[in-house]
Fold each of these.
Amino acid sequence: MPMESGPRVHPFEAWEEGEVLRLTLLNKASIDNWVIKDILRLLDLLDPHGLRPVLVEQEDLVRMTPEARLLLVRACRSGDRPVAFLAHDIPERIQAEFFARFHRPAFPFRVFGFREEAEHWLLGQRAVKVFSLS
């Protein structure tokens, strides 16, 4: 398969925002195994102990390969970092709820329609986790 010319554009952004890690899957992103691995590595770099929760947002027309979906499911069987998925529309909500019900991630996972609700839940999850470690 020929290599694409020009610089590779990352299909996601991740950053620290207070006590929460933020992950945005960018518009028209194609998510494959390499991207899933990059996301997991970056989250581990930002929070090596896995104590900080993650708020995930998905922009329009994000596409994930079947192989990447399988890798994500395997990664969800381990770890206990809480994840809130911010669904901006009904198809995103359906997709995220299906993921939660069908794949049953080992970590706390909830779908929200509003950022404030998601942040409130995530900070509560962080407090429970920090308290349980002390």
Amino acid sequence: MMLEELIAKIENVSKSEVKKAAPSDARDIHQIIMESVPRGPHDKMVLGYLTSLCAERMYPGTFELDVNGLDYIGFELEKGIIAVEVAGDNLGSCMRHGKIIAKKVGDETGSSMVGGEIDADEINSIGNTLGGKINVKKVHTISKDQGAEIFIKGVKFKRGFLDRLLGR
């Protein structure tokens, strides 16, 4: 099955729709991810759901994602572990549980995540989070609204009084 065939079976982009249309075997899902070239946001979101489904079906094992630069890796992840070298934007968006390990990550990391954990060497930007935990060695930008526990080089991140007062 190819990504285009899977998308043709989906009415709306949602995890439940992708889950119904996707193969049941994690190896088949991994194959779709490996062979796909996302053409737009719709394709990227579907691939992101596929990364989550693959990790969830491989649980308790680790899903070693050997495709770099994908957006939405771990989209709505509920359980499992994903390991990737370089991730695009929106890694761990809306994740509930599970863990994602990456070396380098793009923008809006962890956006709307409510649980789970992200471990990364470098993150370009952390989006607005609701919960969960993010461990990072280097981060360039952190969005204003943070519900997640964020640790930078092992030290818990806290906005200073002036940052809060000035709305930063």
Amino acid sequence: MKAIKFTEAELDFLQNHYELELLDAENYVGEIKNILKKLGVIEREIAKEKPVKKPVKKAGRPKKEKKATAETVAPPVVKPVKKTAVKKGAKKTTAKAVKQPELPKP
């Protein structure tokens, strides 16, 4: 996997840019809250909305599955095998090599 390397100036620029974006977003949310207050929406409903933290998955091996015990495993179902009937007078055929007669050499 390729890595991206930034200089200190580039990192400072990106940090400032994203901080400004965050401030703009927070101001926008504040304006919307003011509009909702003017419309008569109760502040308790606004306060209920909190960001939900997603669980962070840890990298590593997956858990091993426990082997099933005899109590939990059902015995396999055995299907009866049908025997095919052989007709009387039918001959079993096998592939035989056919020998060709040798021709005398001139």
Amino acid sequence: MTINPIEDAIRNLGVKNLFKVDETNYKIAFLLHENDWRPLKADWWRGKEVCIIGADINGNFFLRHCDGSVRYWEHKSNSDKVISKSIKDFISNIEWGTDF
């Protein structure tokens, strides 16, 4: 049986929960199962279609954009930025983290 990479990442979040981009560390609080991804409908979102795929410990979202990239939505700045070119790249770069 083949394990879906997102399912494997969810299963390992207790120990592998850190995503790094440049000098920024994102501590992943949760990831959603792929079959739970739904297009985001929120007053604050003005961009193209995205799905929430998870969140960090500060309540900011990891979004899968319709172009395939993974973006980080920061509520405080009311903005998003590309943090990974794809879901596969995002999942494969989740590292060993520390306790919450």
